[in-house]
Input
Amino acid sequence: MEKKTFQVPNIGCDGCVKTIKDEVSSLQGVRFVSGDVDTKTVTVEWDKPATWQQIQEALTKIEYAPAQA
Output
C-alpha cells in the first residue's frame, strides 16, 4: 500500500473535503481518503491498480490539484 499526504491550496470548507473524498474514493484501489480544512492537506492510501498519477489527474479535473512540491 502507498500513502501520501499533500497540500491542496483550493480547500476552503468541509464541502471541498467531501468532494475530494467522493472523487478520489471512486478510483479503484483507493483505500482511504481524508482531508483537513485548516491545514489544507489531504491524505490518500491506495493499492494497485490506483496510481499517484491517477489520483493527481482526478483532483486536477475537479479543480483541487495538489500543490507542486
Q: What stands out?
A: The helical segments are 14-25, 52-61. DSSP finds two helices and three strands in the chain. The CA atoms of residues 44 and 65 lie 14 Å apart.
